[in-house]
Every structure is written in C-alpha cells, then in structure tokens.
Amino acid sequence: MNETAPEFRAGFVSFVGRPNVGKSTLTNALVGEKIAITSPKPQTTRRAIRGIAHRPSGQLIIVDTPGIHRPRTLLGERLNALVEATLGDVDVIGFCVPANEKLGPGDRFINDRLDDFPRAKKVAILTKVDESSKSEIFEQLTRLSTLREWDAVVPVSSVTREQLDVLSDELLNLMPVSPPLYEPATITDEGDDERIAELIREAALREAREELPHSLAATVDDREEREPEGEGELGLLEIYASLYVERDSQKGIVIGKGGSRLRQIGEDARKEIEALLGRRVYLSLRVKVLKEWQRDPKSLGKLGF
Length: 305
Ligand SMILES: Nc1nc2c(ncn2[C@@H]2O[C@H](COP(=O)(O)OP(=O)(O)OP(=O)(O)O)[C@@H](O)[C@H]2O)c(=O)[nH]1
Prior knowledge:
Elements: E1 9-16, H1 23-31, E2 49-55, E3 58-64, H2 74-87, E4 92-98, H3 105-113, E5 121-127, H4 134-145, E6 152-155, H5 164-173, H6 192-208, E7 217-225, E8 237-245, H7 248-255, H8 260-277, E9 281-289, H9 297-302
Guanosine-5'-triphosphate (GTP) binds next to helix 1.
Keywords: Cell membrane, Cytoplasm, GTP-binding, Membrane, Nucleotide-binding, Ribosome biogenesis, RNA-binding, rRNA-binding
Domain KH type-2: 208-291
Membrane topology: Peripheral membrane protein
C-alpha cells in the first residue's frame, strides 16, 4: 500500500436542527438517492433513516433523526428518546441552521443539548446558501462562532449542490480510520417496505398537508408477485398498504370527493415506488382509523415507532 495515500475513514453522522432547516434534503443530496422524506411542513421526519454516502476516501453513514424538541405527546417523548440513543452513538453531529435566518431560542436549545454528547465531533452547517446573500452568510458564521468551538463550519446548498463536496470531505476528515462498514452498493439499510411506506406517507402529505400535517402514518401490509407475462420478465408486484389517520373525520379528508384524493395519492406513490424498485407495481391503498395513534403505545408499536 502507498504510504502517503490518505487513509480510508468511515463513521456515523447525524444532522440536527430545528424543523425545516433542510436536514432531510441534505441527507438525500449527500447520499444521491431519495431516501428520507422531505416536505415543506415541519417535523415530518419520524424515523432514524440511514443513508450512506460512499466516497473514494471513505463512507459517511448518515443517521437522520427527527429533530430535538420539547416533548408534548407520547410520540414526542419517544422521538426524543430516539434522538438521545442516536446521538449518543455517532461520531459527528452536524448542527444545521439556514444561513439566512437569525439564530433563535430553538437553535440555542438544540445547541445546548449537544453538550450532552461529548464523544461526537460538532460541525456547524449553514444550509440554503442559495437563498442567502454573502452578508447574511458572513453574519451567520459570526453568530455561530459565539455558540461553541466547532470542529468545522461549512456553508452549503443542497439545491445547487454548492459546497457539498467540501462538507463531505470535512465530515470524513473527522471520522475514524476504518475499513468500509457497508458494501458499496448499499444506499440505505432500511428495508424496502419502510421506504415504500415513507413514499406513501409523503404522497399523502403532499395532498392533505394543510388539514393533517402530523396525523398520517403508513404501513406496507403485504406483497404478492404476479406471474410474469413473458419469459425472463418480472411480473407485476402487488403491494397492499394502509394509510392511518387518527379520527373518523380525517378519513374523508384523505379519501376526498368520490375517492379522488386517495386515487391521486395512490398514483403519485405508485410512480415513486416503481422508480425506487425499478419495476411495475400495483398499489392497493386502504385508509384506516387508528384512534389517537400518536398517544397510544400499542398503536405506536404497530406503526414501528
Ligand atoms: N433553497 C433551498 N431550499 C432548501 C434547501 N434544503 C432544503 N430546502 C427546503 O427546505 C424545506 C425543508 O427541508 P427538509 O429537508 O424537509 O427539512 P428538515 O430539516 O429535514 O425538516 P424536518 O423533517 O421537519 O425536521 C423543503 O421545502 C426543502 O425543499 C437548500 O439547500 N436550498
């Protein structure tokens, strides 16, 4: 081996920050395939989804957390417990703030919590620089430097991909020297079913976001392979999934007039699932009521939280 070659590094990073600062979009941009749910509504990321960014010099394993916030429901408490467990275990925490928004109490609350995870290196990431002026970026850099001694500070845009390479280099530099932890082909270690359920929830959120921002959950219940029509071809894959709401009154909202909304959700989700799996899919989507699922331990368990 060449003595001067940079050593391969691999490790875990988690992006934290207020809702809507761009954590999921950044994960997707670094990994290069759509894996984490993104939406303009705050607090829509609920699962710790891992994406893996493979680079010639190393592997960044990205643990996408739901964000640190003050718990109000049982779901909120579970999410915080999940965040604690996740952050206690990562090599680097990336603290995300939009470059063009003043640091507020929410940012300070999260920044203070980072002291609880002394093992992790801390990197400040200024997101959405494409929407920010030079002076806004500069001022944000100055404000961030008053919070703590960061191991690195990087402004990026997930939309224009500006500085993404710099960010992945900086993150990799902070990772331990290690052989690859995952096979190069692995983009996420989440099962297909979970990714499919997320796509369904995302499609439903796009349609019914105003009315039901936080009351939707989805599960994949069953899959069946249909006989292929020609030799060497894949048959149609039948996927049976459920979309959960919390109250009877919400069912109608998701179904829409004459079932129009549910059809649209199903069609949008099916297209994305087909793109994900690279094959034709038949999607059967049923809307079910799981009363107050966000507050009920049994229901949360059923939905995988
Ligand atoms: N212009 C611009 N918009 C961005 C960028 N990154 C994210 N966004 C937008 O910001 C919004 C929030 O992005 P998300 O990635 O869902 O934010 P998040 O921090 O994961 O949000 P939660 O899941 O609620 O915690 C979306 O509308 C994104 O399209 C960026 O680099 N530039």
